[in-house]
Amino acid sequence: QFRLVGSGGGRVYAGDSARLVCTAFGSPLSSRRLAWFRQAPGKEREGIACISSSGGNTEYPPSVKGRFINDRDDEMNMMFLQMNNLKPDDTGIYYCAAAPLQGAYCSRLESEYGDWGQGIQVTVSS
């Protein structure tokens, strides 16, 4: 059975970098659209990064664009979120997600994703 397991995160300080990893088990990651979502305290979950099945297209909201990098390695069955220049507003629970959708584009719409990893806590202190 296909499942995702997230790792990384923890407590860091403003300006630090951190990397989240999402590992797939049970089935290849290839041919799947992937994304990262974040739920900040008291806020709804939002899509903060996505990557197309080919890996050729990524999207980010303005809040993380230029600081976060979403990448994938289908041979390793992994997806990565490199987070640079972290800010206290980046604090939250991060989730990786996958959808069996191919194509040149990706989406940060939560409704498109049916497979989710467990949440990863990231706390950024000032």
Description:
The chain is mainly beta. 0% of the residues lie in helices and 48% in strands. It has strands at residues 3-8, 10-13, 18-25, 33-39, 46-51, 58-59, 68-73, 78-83, 92-99, 115-116, 120-125. Strands 2, 4, 5, 6, 9, 10 and 11 form a seven-stranded mixed sheet that branches. A four-stranded antiparallel sheet has the order 1-3-8-7, with no helix packed on it. The N and C termini lie far apart (41 Å). The relative contact order is 0.33.
Q: What's the helix and strand layout?
A:
Layout: E1 3-8, E2 10-13, E3 18-25, E4 33-39, E5 46-51, E6 58-59, E7 68-73, E8 78-83, E9 92-99, E10 115-116, E11 120-125
Parallel strand pairs: 2-11
Antiparallel strand pairs: 1-3, 3-8, 4-5, 4-9, 5-6, 7-8, 9-10, 9-11
Offer a few descriptive terms.
126 residues; mainly beta; 7-stranded mixed β-sheet; 4-stranded antiparallel β-sheet; 0% helix; globular
Rg, alpha carbons: 13 Å
**How many helix segments?**
0
Secondary structure: helix percent: under 10%
Distance separating the two termini: 41 Å
Query: Major sheet, described briefly?
Result: 7 strands, mixed
The helix/strand class is mainly beta
Q: Uncertain segments of ≥5 residues (pLDDT<50)?
A: none
Percent of sequence in beta strands? over 45%
